[in-house]
Design brief:
Number of helices: 14
Strand order of the largest sheet: 2-3-1-4-5-6
Structural class: alpha/beta
Helix content: 40-55%
Number of domains: 1
Number of strands: 6
Strand content: 5-15%
CATH topology: Rossmann fold
Shape: globular
CATH architecture: 3-Layer(aba) Sandwich
Largest sheet: 6 strands, parallel
Order of helices and strands: EHHEHHEHEHHHEHHHHHHE
Radius of gyration: 20 Å
Length: about 290
């Protein structure tokens, strides 16, 4: 059995990816691809992590965990998705940097199933938009400038996070993509996570697009794709990009950031470093980086 842990990150697909997978759970199960619902495994995996604290689970414990989660279901591939696998949202910037707990936490998670092949999957997000988004979702926090003083912006590097994760899990492949590209890459992300057969018809594949495209545009795009099926993934991406260009909801595509001190002068260097990090990460051994 192959196990895929989709670990977020926070403030990327906001649970829409799991919702889309769950909408096809029955069809996937017929292909021996299992997508259990989050409540079935959230507590079980959390309790097991606390019990093991990084130690390798015994074969007996692995069997108990899977039997508890999957019950009578049987398959060759299981997908677990939870953005809180790496940490809780309040500690994304713990110690003033980006996801410092992620490598250790995910290595612990991998050790729950030491006898299985495990893939770690996640979407990355530009720190220039992740920082204000994370702050806006927190409760009982100081003013933005005071909160920001606790973060070393020069240390917000996805390259460091992924390098540390590769060192912690040298045998586990990583499946990565940029959150900014997700609307264009959705079918490729789903296929990479599930390894479902080519040509399989899936429901709820416009879940994300429906949040950023007008209903009129979405209906027209569906009609166009039905009448003129794309010849390749690249062709489909061009079609989606064209319809987004014409029918995107402006409020959904533009991040309105109104926080004291969070200016273009601060954001631009973060975005430039992010783009440079992606180029380096995409070339790393053991990494499959989905790009448009």
């Amino acid at each position: 059995m192959h196990i895929v842990f989709h670990i977020g990150v926070h403030h990327t697909d906001e649970g829409l990816l799991l919702r889309s997978l769950r909408a096809n759970a029955q069809a996937f199960e017929a292909q021996r691809i299992l997508v259990p619902d989050l409540p079935k495994y959230r507590t079980v995996l959390s309790d097991t992590l606390q019990k093991l604290r990084g130690n390798l689970a015994s074969q007996e414990l692995q069997d108990v965990v899977l039997d508890t989660i999957l019950e009578d279901s049987d398959g060759d591939r299981v997908i677990f998705s939870n953005e809180n696998f790496p940490c809780m949202p309040s500690v994304i910037f713990n110690d003033g940097t980006l996801y410092d707990r992620l490598p250790k936490r995910i290595s612990w998670l991998r050790n729950v199933f030491p006898d299985f092949d495990v893939t770690i999957a996640m979407g990355l997000r530009d720190p220039a938009t992740l920082v204000p988004e994370a702050y806006s979702k927190l409760r009982d926090v100081p003013p933005f400038r005071d909160w920001l003083d606790q973060i070393d912006l020069s240390s917000l590097s996805w390259h460091r996070v992924i390098t540390d994760l590769r060192e912690a899990l040298p045998e586990s492949p990583l499946l990565l993509w940029c959150n900014e590209d997700t609307p264009l890459l959705w079918p490729e992300i789903v296929q990479a996570l599930t390894a479902h057969p080519d040509g399989m018809t899936l429901e709820a594949q416009d879940t994300l697009l429906s949040t950023i495209m007008s209903e009129t545009g979405l209906q027209r795009m569906r009609a166009y794709l039905a009448s003129s099926p794309p010849k390749s993934a690249e062709h489909r991406r061009r079609v989606v990009a064209a319809f987004l260009d014409k029918f995107a909801r402006e409020e959904a595509m533009v991040d309105e950031i109104d926080l004291d001190g969070w200016t273009e002068e601060v954001m631009d260097p973060l975005s430039e470093r992010y783009e440079a990090d992606v180029d380096v990460i995409a070339a790393m051994p053991g990494v499959r980086f989905l790009l448009p």
